[in-house]
Structure formats: structure tokens, C-alpha cells
Amino acid sequence: MSPHYDRPWISRVYENLPDFGVDLYVGGREGASDVGLLRANGISTVLNCAVNLDFNYVSQDDEISHDSGVGYGPAQIRYYKLGIVDGPGNPDTMMLAGYFQLKGALEQILPDKPSYPLRERGNVLVNCRAGRSRSVALVSLFLHLHLPQEFPTLADAIAHVRVKRELRPDEWDSTPKPMLIAAAERSAAWARLIEPEHDCAEAALA
Questions:
Q1: Segment among 18-27, 40-49, 62-71 with least mean pLDDT
Q2: How far apart are CA 99 and CA 17, in angstroms?
Q3: Residue ranges making up the domain that contains 161
Q4: For 199, how many CA atoms within 13 A lie in the half-sphere containing its CB?
Q5: Tell me, what's the pLDDT at 206?
Q6: What does the DSSP assignment read for 24-36?
Q7: Quick check: helix, strand or coil at residue 145?
Q8: What pLDDT was estimated at residue 110?
Q9: H or E stretch at 46
């Protein structure tokens, strides 16, 4: 359990995601930094959407930077980074970018080359510092757009993720933050313009 919040370090919010066959998780910094926990839950991919938090999953350096002495190389976890502020200050397009980054992480197939040693396709974790706001907004946006029959509105998806993430009703006014919900709403509209199939799915529900 997290020392700061009375909920699991990571929470499975959707099992066997259609078209991908993997589970989708939401979590905070404690869970995202625990490689043993990630592996135990079959998580091979992490999308960190917190601008004020970073991880280093590299277990064996390929090379060392001459300037800083910091090592770099392949990581134990496939890692994507999106820097969103938990509050005002984000261009709305950053939430839209997060949707496509998460979609890309699920769809991306790495080449069979030595420079891409981690090619397994496992479960996916989206995290922020506490797994309460930024990650909840982004995953809800994805579920709403990817599964419109199940989550016809963004609010439906948020309600689902709140329950699965074990967010208490007394904190729902800030989980996610209202401006992040508004950004997700606008991003959903933009995504439908970019990917017309979302319009078709929405029309079928009418």
C-alpha cells in the first residue's frame, strides 16, 4: 500500500482490452518505480504522464555519458514519458498527445533487431505521482474513445476508472482535476476529427 494514499500502488482498471488483449493499469510513483511489482502483474510498458517525476529502468548500461557519467541503454520496462502539470498550465493539445501516445504504445511493434532487446507485449501502466488525477484523466479519455459502446461519455469512463482505482467519493472533485477533465473533453472532440471512426461509433449509439 502507498504510504500517502489508502489505495494500491497500481490498480487494474480494464482487463483484456479489446483489439490489444492486454490489461490497462493506473498507478502512482511507488508502483511505477517497483519493477518487481510491474513484472508480477505482467506489465511491460509504462507511460509516465507526470512532468515532475522521472524513472530510470536501465539495469545495465550500454554506454556512459562523457559529460555527466550517467549511464544509458535498454531498459527493463518499455518507457514512455508525457509531461503534464497536475492543474492549470497545460496546453490542451498535451492531453490529445497523451491519448495518441498511449494508443501508440499499445499498437507499436518493435523491429527484430539487437538494438530493440525488449519486444514483449505485456500489460500497460499509466502513472502520475499518485495515480489520482493526470493518469485517471488520460486513461478515461482513452477508454471513452476506444470503447464508446461501453463508455459513451467521458464521464462514464471517469466513473469507471475512479471505482477501479479505489478513489474515495470525497476526493472525486479533484480526481481528476476539473481542468484536466475539460482538456480531455476537448481532446476527445479533436480525436474524432483526426480518427473519423470515432464519429461512426458515436453515431451508432445515438
A1: 62-71
A2: 15
A3: 10-205
A4: 8
A5: 46
A6: EEEE-HHHHT-HH
A7: helix
A8: 80
A9: strand 43-50
Assess if residue 135 is contained within a domain: yes
CB 176 within 8 A of CB 136: yes
* Residues pairing with 126 in the sheet: 26, 47
Q: Is residue 2 part of a domain?
A: no
Sheet containing strand 24-27, strands side by side: 10-14, 24-27, 123-127, 43-50, 78-84
The pairing of beta strand 78-84 with beta strand 123-127:
unpaired
Q: What is the pTM of this model?
A: 0.88
Task: Identify any residues that bridge with 50 across adjacent strands, giving them in sequence order.
Answer: 84
Query: How many domains are contained in the chain?
Result: 1
Cα angle vertex 134, ends 45, 175, to 5°? 130
Q: What Cα–Cα distance (Å) separates residue 4 from each residue in 90, 112, 132, 142?
A: 25, 41, 12, 27
3 within a domain of the structure (yes/no): no
Q: Which three cell numbers stand for residue 126?
A: 499509466
* Cα–Cα dist 144/4, whole Å: 29
Q: Which residues contact residue 102 at a Cβ distance below 8 angstroms, ignoring those fewer than 6 apart?
A: 47, 80, 124, 126, 138, 139, 142
| β-bridge partners, 165 | none
* CATH at 156: 3.90.190.10
Q: Say if 1 falls within a structural domain.
A: no
At how many degrees (to 10) do helices 92-107 and 134-146 cross?
Answer: 60
Cα 47 from chain centre: 5
Q: How far apart are CA 108 and CA 121, in angstroms?
A: 9
| Coil/strand/helix, residue 123 | strand
Give the three cell numbers for residue 190.
479533436
